[in-house]
Amino acid sequence: MAMETETMPVHLKALAAFLICQHSDQLRSITLSPDPKFHYPLYIDFAELMDDDPSLAHLVFSKPTDYLRFFDDAAIWAHKIVFDKLKLCEKGMEKKFIHVRINISGSPLECPETFPSIGRVRVKHHGVLLTLKGTVIRSGATKMYEGERTYMCRKCKHTFPVYPELETRNSIVLPSHCPSQRSKPCEGTNFQYIENTIICHDYQEIKIQESTQVLGVGVIPRSILVILKDDLVDIIKAGDDVIVTGILTAKWSPDLKDVRCDLDPVLIANHVRRANELKSEIDIPDDVVVQFKQFWSEFKDTPLKGRNAILRGICPQVFGLFTVKLAVALTLIGGVQHVDASGTKVRGESHLLLVGDPGTGKSQFLKFAAKLSNRSVITTGLGSTSAGLTVTAVKDGGEWMLEAGALVLADGGLCCIDEFDSMREHDRATIHEAMEQQTISVAKAGLVTTLSTKTIVFGATNPKGHYDPDQPLSVNTTLSGPLLSRFDIVLVLLDTKNPEWDAVVSSHILAEVEPGEGKQGELLTNIWPLAMLRRYIQFVKGYFKPVLTKEAERVISSYYQLQRRSATQNAARTTVRMLESLIRLAQAHARLMFRNEVTRLDAITAILCVESSMTTSAIVDSVGNALHSNFMENPDLEYARQERLILQKLRSIEEFPDMISTQEL
What is the per-residue burial (b if ≥16 Cβ within 10 Å, else e) of 291-330? Predict the structure, then answer.
């Protein structure tokens, strides 16, 4: 569409001049692109526009419906100027569709007034440039709709575009008189449609929901419909965290007989930014990092005592259960993801399952673990929505859409699943892929896609009836062997009779009920507070990428070979996954110990965790019931004893005596 300079709006030249001055590289790249019918994005920063022309930036904010359209026209005009310069020396093609995408990051528009939570969107936000953050809970199919057509005034022959409006169900509303801006108004009222001037756009509807992590107890998370057009279509999937900038408008609800027709709020997106990499961010000041380093310098000679000081802060209301608290810490910290030369990924996230009698504290650990993670979803095996744990296809307004389940919504964080054995049938069929490959492949109702489930799974379940130690775990629960093999650690908490343990636990519970002197201002050498634990877990996950030492590799390799020799033919299938679990747990323990290399101590601790799991044949007989495990007064001395036991068992492997001297044993 040719544009004449004299018919341009007042600010069109200023917008085009800004694009040519600040974004000539993007314009040049668009000009050299081969496809002339493609919709090209041109990204600008609102803060940059404010520095260049504050009054123009204010008009873009306050009247985005008009000025974003002007910006697109200005981008086409600026592109033509660049094209005229390039066609003499380089091969370029003239483009028809360029859309200016405005990123408000780092600008004054990040204030609560223009960047509210979804639940605080009000009528006052209508018609301004608004930014919302949320999780995609539904994504619809891509459709095509008419976005523009051109008419001509029969009286003065002036041509002008007409745009459909959502408020009127995308119907075309012609102006009351000719919109030509001549010195002598035309005021014609008879218009003719010009053939072959309809411009169609790609169109997709998604629904985003505000994060439950920022809401108070009892607050229902709100959601809003978002419309994506052109280059924004199909760039995000269900489960993604997104920051959307756009124009808040309204959409008529379906017209039903004897039902009041309401306007539903909808955000027409201009800029979409995936915020998946920001899901787990926690602010960690430098002085807190210094505290961590000072803490470990104090326990340089007794590192396991320092580790136990950290573990005591996990679910402190539950007495003892050292093995469970260690397993929770290692699961939340996780190992390092490995990608081989062919691109095959081996997950770094660990999974934990607690199988136990009622009243053994399983749900307490689930809720506390959710508090430790910056992004978490707590649900039951049946699922809190129709999507269950994975994903499902739902029909909304006559259209099929994908609805994300708990595992997809927890992508990049933690998914706590109580009553794990009560999963829906379609969840049982897909959860294997979700836990191991960390993706969910969907082919439902004509919707074919792959969703990310890079999630830590922390499950809890009760045994089926009375737990029989002589039977395998798959018999005592309703979970299959292949599904159990996905868990790095499976701990069985049996409420057996133990008078000494009952006396200690009852004393602890009674002491908790009594009014105490308060424990404010405690040092890190005592019980760590929740906020400090969250920061520590996040810091060691991001800062340390532990590498196995040769000594640790040989310990893990020897233990793996010993398990293969002692395992039955059916159990041998799961020991390859057990080897991967050992590596992840050893790396997690190295991170917990504030180190960047995996030592023999980390490898043996990982072995002890796996030995506590009832899914493998135990080699060390001194592990005991995980429910009755307690914190030792001298953990370093206790570890030395357990290390001797394990190394004696590993002496049967031919390669192992070269590394360990007889004196050590």
Answer: ebeebeeebeeebbbbbbbbbebbbeebbbbbbbbbbbbb
Query: Coil, strand, or helix at residue 43?
Result: strand
Q: State residue 591's pLDDT score.
A: 92
The answer to whether 457 and 351 are in contact (CB under 8 A) is yes
In one letter, which amino acid is 72? D
More confident residue, 220 or 414: 414
Phi, psi of 411 (to 5 degrees): -55, 125
What is the C-alpha separation between 309 and 523, in angstroms, rounded? Answer: 10
The residues with which 255 forms a beta bridge, in sequence order, are: none
Phi and psi torsions of 130, nearest 5°: -115, 145
pLDDT at 483 over 70: yes
Q: Where are the beta strands (DSSP E) in 439-527?
A: 439-444, 447-452, 456-461, 489-493
If you count them, how many residues does the chain have? 665
In angstroms, how far is CA 371 from the centroid of its own chain?
16
> Interhelix angle for 550-566 vs 575-592, to 10°?
150
| Cβ contacts of 389 within 8 Å, gap of 6 or more | 379, 381, 383, 405, 406, 407, 415, 417, 423, 424, 427, 431, 434
488, 526, 490: which is closest to 311 by C-alpha?
Answer: 526
pLDDT at residue number 390: 76
Tokens of 79: 């592109």
The alpha carbon of 449 is separated from its chain's Cα centroid by a whole number of angstroms, namely 17
Round to whole Å and give the CA distance between 525 and 531.
Answer: 15
Longest dimension (CA), the chain: 106
- Give dist(CA 33, CA 94) in Å, integer: 9
Instruction: Match 């395998």 to its residue by tokens.
Output: 472
pLDDT tens sequence across 264-315: 888 889 999 887 655 555 667 788 888 888 888 888 888 888 888 888 888 8
pLDDT attached to residue 3: 41
Q: Phi and psi dihedrals of 34, rounded to 5?
A: -80, -30
C-alpha gyration radius of the chain? 31
Q: How far apart are CA 574 and CA 69, in angstroms?
A: 59
User: How far apart are alpha carbons 162 and 575 in whole angstroms?
Assistant: 67
Could you read off the pLDDT of 353-412 as tens digits, one per residue?
A: 888 878 777 888 888 888 888 778 888 776 555 457 777 777 766 677 777 778 888 888
Q: Per-residue pLDDT tens for 449-472?
A: 788 888 888 888 888 878 777 777
> Per residue in 535-580, pLDDT tens?
888 888 888 889 999 988 888 888 888 877 776 544 544 567 788 8
590's CB contacts (< 8 A; 6+ apart) are: 544, 546, 596, 597, 598, 599, 602
What phi, psi does 537 have (nearest 5°)? -60, -45
Separation of alpha carbons 494 and 491, rounded Å: 10
Secondary structure of residue 646 in the 3-state scheme: helix
State whether the Cα torsion 84-86-88-91 is positive or negative.
negative
Query: Cβ of 80: how many Cβ atoms within 10 Å?
Result: 17
Reported as a single tens digit per residue, the pLDDT across 78-109 is 888 877 776 656 666 777 888 888 888 888 88
Q: From residue 552, how far is each of 81, 599, 636 by CA, in Å?
A: 64, 5, 18
pTM for this prediction: 0.74
Rounded-to-integer distance, Cα 96 and Cα 435, Å: 45
3-state secondary structure (DSSP) of residue 426? helix
Spatial neighbors of 318 by CB under 8 A, at least 6 apart, are: 361, 364, 365
